[in-house]
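Support reply, case 0932

Customer input (verbatim):
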Amino acid sequence: MKIFIERENSKKNLRFNGTVSKLLQQLKLNPSTVLVARNNTLVTESDGLIDSDEVKILSVISGG
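Our regenerated output:
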C-alpha cells in the first residue's frame, strides 16, 4: 500500500489489509486529527483497505 502522510510530508510503502482505524493505530495517528482518502475518495474509520490501495492521510485544520 502506498501511503502519503500530509503532516509529515512523507510517503511510505506498507503491506496492510484491514480497516482505516487499524491503519491509523499502526501509524500512531489520532483519528480525530486526520481525514483518510482511499484512491482519492474519503473513507471512514470502519472502511476496509487492501494492499493495492493508495491512501492519503490529510490533516484536519480548524480555526475560529
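We compared this against your earlier run and they match. Two observations from our side: The beta strands are 2-5, 10-13, 18-19, 34-38, 41-43, 48-49, 54-59. The chain has a mean pLDDT of 95. Please reopen the case if you see a mismatch on your end.
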